[in-house]
Amino acid sequence: MSERGRYAFIDQLRGLVVVLMLVDHTSYYFNSVWLRLNPLDPLFDSWGQFALRYVSYLCAPGFLLVNGAMVWYAYRRRVDAGRRAWEARWHLIQRGLFLILLQLTWVNSSWGGFERLRPGHFGIIACIGLSMCLVTLLVHLRWPARLAIGLTLLAVHPLLLKIPYDTGNAWSMIPMQVFGDAGDFNKYPVLPWFVMAILGSVVGEGWLGAWKDSAKRRISYGVIIGLVAMAAATVIRLARGYGNLTTFSGVTHFSFLMDHKYPPSIYHLVWFFGVIVLAAAFLEGLGRISPKIPSPLGVFGRVPLFFYCVHIALLGIFSKRIGIYYRQGEVAESLIGLMVMLVVMYPLCVWFGGVKERSRNWFIRMI
Fold first, then answer.
1. Which residues are CB-neighbours of 309 under 8 A, at least 6 positions away?
2. Of 40, 43, 144, 221, which sits with the fewest C-beta atoms within 10 Å of its C-beta?
3. pLDDT per residue as tens digits for the range 251-264
4. Is 165 exposed, middle or buried (CB count within 10 Å of its CB: 0-12, 13-18, 19+)?
């Protein structure tokens, strides 16, 4: 833990997530596979294209899990400092509402290089924001109660997908795609990703509460929790029944790993919960052995929302709107774009990290 109350492994975990997200986004703008790929039902013609897509599957689970952990941490710190429970919640709810507003304005428009406003889309940042608001309503509960609520919602979600609705009727389509199903209006329904935020609040109570003074315990318990979750997910997938939304060709085929993301299946959520918790343990262990190796990730992870908003805007303006190499390449071109964007974003994140640390401006503190 740093002098300012920051946990390096948390910043590095967020940094890893945003870098993997950048892999996906440089592929989205520079990779010609997107001219023929259906993101709701992806089929890949090479392992390279599969790898580019699959690494980004950690991003939404990573964002929601860490967000849930930090909601618990921020709430506890304020309450322990003498703030009233509602006051502590309201601070977090403001942040969640800000994320929803940011999605509907800046984020949606930035994808096309600000060619036009696109308020009619509810995406991942809005999903995080609404999930954040909902977690504040549960954060006072003991962790076994939160875990039970999360697992119950996880089990119920596939049943909601069986509810028929008219995608041409906004009154039925919007509620279903905001909370349960995925489609053109929203690929990130809140209910299943809210589960990931709840699970994040539970593991966060371990990371930043019960095990806060022992990196060794965080690492060892993280490895155990991660491996148990991944083993449970593997059993769910092998059963080919409830908790799966797509079939697979075989255990060694990439289709085994790529069950539904839009919306996520039980297998998807449990598997990536385990992967993210393992990644946190790995980063903390690596930081204890050689702190300089994961430290660059911490630069990105200290300002993840700034990274998200700026990198999409730059790619949207220069690639899609101006037309610089827009969807003309393959795997190599996507990776070159990744390296260029990392070089551009690193000094920007260093600069804004300093600005945010010194500033008391409400807007800057929200970013």
1. 102, 106, 107, 110, 367
2. 144
3. 888 888 888 889 99
4. middle
